[in-house]
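Supplementary notes for students who missed Thursday's class. We covered one full example, reproduced here. Read the sequence, then the structure, then the short commentary at the end.
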Amino acid sequence: MKDKILEFAKGKEIDALQLTRCMDNKETEPEVNKAQALGKDVGVSATPTLFINGRRMVGRADWNTLRGVIDYEIDYQKTAHNAGEDCGCEVTLPAPKLN
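Structure (token representation):
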């Protein structure tokens, strides 16, 4: 796993020595584990995952798509008090085509 992380870091202006020391130190491991558990608890199964007014959005989205969802939620809240809370709703975005 460490090799994959270091390979990912190549060419991204990340100090490989500092990154290696950080991974070896494991000082932040409890914090990372806590964040992973929280993500699992709220249903995060992919990256990126966003929550907008309680609605889970899985996948990368451009600004126009995000703005459309946000505007929809703002309008929806005008007619339904706390409609986004605990709605169990999910929005799945199409995966972008990679060249």
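Commentary. The chain has a mean pLDDT of 82. Residues 22 and 36 are 18 Å apart (CA to CA). If anything here is unclear, bring it to office hours.
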